Amino acid sequence: MEGFVVIGDMVATGLLALGITRGARGRALASVVPLLIWGMMAAALAAALSAIPTFGGFLLLALGAGFGATFGALIAFSARAERMPLYLTGLLVLYGVTGVFLSLSVMETSAIFWQSRMGSSNAERLASGAVALLSGSLVAGGGCAMFIRRLPAGPVAMLLRTTPLYRLLLAALILVLLGRLMASGGGLVLFSMVSCLSMVLGALVVLPAREADLWPFAILLTALSGLATAAIGFALASLLLIIAGGLASASMAQLLNSVCRESGRRPRDLLLGNPR
């Protein structure tokens, strides 16, 4: 089994490196995206194979959901061009939900079992799970709101208009509960509260946004997805997931900063809903 894991990691690394190289040279998107898709599929398959002798069926189910979401990208890129944003937003939501499930499996696993099998400390396990939980929940909530906004018959008006103060208070409450969750070493009730409130916060930020701001928000949600991937990779001691997630998060953060600078705003203004 370890041999297949190594082969999967090597294939994923080669495909991702080739896709990144083509993208850096300015090749057409149609020649870059398939390589990235197959590379992430190989990485997900390698992660699933490496987890088989270590974890139970719940984590494998979550990894299978992530693998299926990646495979769904092939369907999305074969769709019509006008439907492309809708498909990709739906896949973004699936990645967010997968991050939440993976963080649950990480945080609810016995600390003794985790240390004996993975070698990481309890603090590292809880910290990586908390980052994946927060990022995945924000992606799931914000992605659902963006999916609703992009539906042909969906609400296109600015709904749920909230002041920045309410968003900041909700974010502060989430951080307090997240700290309590880490201090207590886990807990399904606190986990559910943090996840639900983070999804609500993501929806409250994205749903009232202007039509022109949906593209920067899509970049932000993709960056959070990469952050969740890197956190899960840290928990699973997977260097490939850490590199892939960190690369995606850093590149999307730089792209978001460039888009906001071109529009004459800062990323903070985008999150708080301040107009140009």
TrEMBL record:
Keywords: Membrane, NAD, Transmembrane, Transmembrane helix. Residues 35-271 form the NADP transhydrogenase beta-like domain. It comes from the Bacteria. It holds the Pfam family PNTB. The chain crosses the membrane at residues 28-52, 58-79, 86-106, 126-148, 164-182, 188-207, 214-234, 240-260. Coiled coil: none annotated. InterPro entries: PNTB-like. The keyword Cytoplasm does not apply. The keyword Membrane applies. This is NAD(P)(+) transhydrogenase (Re/Si-specific) subunit beta. It comes from Rhizobium terricola.
